[in-house]
Design goal:
globular; Peroxisomal Thiolase, Chain A, domain 1; nine-stranded mixed beta sheet; alpha/beta; 14 helices; about 20% strand
Length: about 375
């Protein structure tokens, strides 16, 4: 299997993007990515497009909207979907294409325009990422799923509402430093704790945002990467795993099996362990999800995630900085784009280009992306030269 590196990154502004269509959002990220890599679209062999919801795109084949708009035809374009993990699955698909020798240079795009539909409809669409027969018809939405998870974790390990709010405070602080973030707004603990309840114990600031946006990366074989890029960032580990569709069939509500399994695979492939990770982006669709990710990825012992954030160990300068781009919580969560956005952030960190949010001397980074309530999870590990 050939070595594969990220050689170009591009990121559009996340937010309510009434100024741009789905295809225009994608173009914004692709242009920035091509400029960063110093290559033309003609040099790219194939592309992978991550768009999670046809309902958001207002039509089938959103990937065709994009390859047509950027002028990529007649070359291959794969469209992938894995709910909120779509972007990282797109990256893994591109990785397999290059590693196998099918392509030398691949463009990976993640994009979603969620505000194309009313908020109530967006909530309904996302709710159907659970079991649309045995869960959703009985009233479950994603805040409801993660409220069940949060209540179980609080009951089993003593995790508190204050610890959940601490995740929001951290991520909003770093989001305020990220020019691409949807909500560039600092909040304090009191504001987080007194915001209205969405699904107990989750409050407004425990929940990620409905967001429009796009991100793109170009990945290449070792030969091409060394010829083109002065700062290649190598994809050294890739793990993908699954769990049951229905929460009621899970072995536990306080851990995501697919996160643990995908993490194990990625760590083994990269030849590293949790203590070797210098910076991480994890899937904080809700604050409890970040706390559970700390535990599932081995950054702390099971049940100790609340204590890890309370000790500020996931801040810059802490033992393992996590989501110092603002995470889904503040940066935003355009579901098809999230995993690619995570890759952009880790690449910036390993290149030393993250500005005020830079983790000092970062060498190894991890991106963790959850689909749905844990039905599918992708974990990627990156390393600089």
């Amino acid at each position: 299997m050939r070595k594969v590196a990220v050689i170009g990154i591009g990121h559009g502004k996340f937010g309510v993007r009434s100024d741009a269509s789905l295809r225009e959002l994608a173009f914004e990220a692709v242009k920035a990515c091509l400029d960063d890599a110093g290559v033309t679209l003609k040099e790219v062999d194939s592309m992978v497009t991550g768009v999670a919801g046809d309902e958001f795109a207002l039509g089938l084949q959103p990937s065709a909207q994009i390859h047509d708009y950027i002028g990529f035809h007649p070359k291959p374009n794969y469209r992938v979907e894995g709910a909120c993990a779509t972007g990282s699955i797109a990256l893994r698909t591109g990785l397999m294409n290059v590693a196998s020798g099918l392509a030398d240079i691949v463009l990976v795009i993640g994009v979603e325009k969620m505000t194309e539909v009313p908020t109530s409809m967006a909530t309904e669409i996302m709710g159907k990422a659970g079991d649309s027969i045995w869960e959703y018809p009985f009233g479950t939405t994603f805040p409801g799923y993660y409220a069940l998870i949060a209540n179980a974790h609080m009951a089993e390990y003593g995790t508190t509402e204050e610890q959940l709010a601490m995740v929001a405070v951290k991520n909003h602080y770093y989001g305020s430093l990220n020019p691409y973030a949807h909500m560039q707004k600092v909040i304090d603990l009191q504001k987080a704790l007194t915001s209205f309840t969405v699904a107990y114990p989750l409050k407004l600031f425990d929940c990620s945002l409905i967001t429009d946006g796009a991100a793109a990366v170009i990945i290449a074989s070792e030969e091409k990467a060394k010829a083109i890029s002065k700062k290649p960032v190598w994809i050294v580990g890739s793990g993908l795993a699954t769990d049951t569709l229905r929460l009621g069939d899970r072995e536990s509500l306080t851990s995501i099996l697919a996160s643990r399994e995908a993490g194990k695979t990625a760590y083994k492939m990269a030849g590293v362990g949790p203590s070797d990770i210098d910076v991480a982006t994890v899937h904080d669709c809700f604050t409890i999800a970040e706390i559970i990710a700390y535990e599932d990825l081995g950054f702390c012992e099971k049940g100790e995630g609340g204590k890890l954030i309370a000790a500020k160990e996931t801040y810059l300068g802490g033992r393992i900085p996590v989501n110092v781009d603002g995470g889904l919580k503040s940066k935003g969560h355009p579901i098809g784009a999230t995993g690619v956005s995570m890759t952009v952030e880790i690449t910036k960190q390993l290149r030393g280009e993250a500005g005020e949010r830079q983790v000092k001397n970062a060498e190894i980074g991890l991106a963790h992306n959850v689909g749905g309530s844990g039905q599918v999870v992708a974990v990627h590990i990156f390393r600089r030269e």
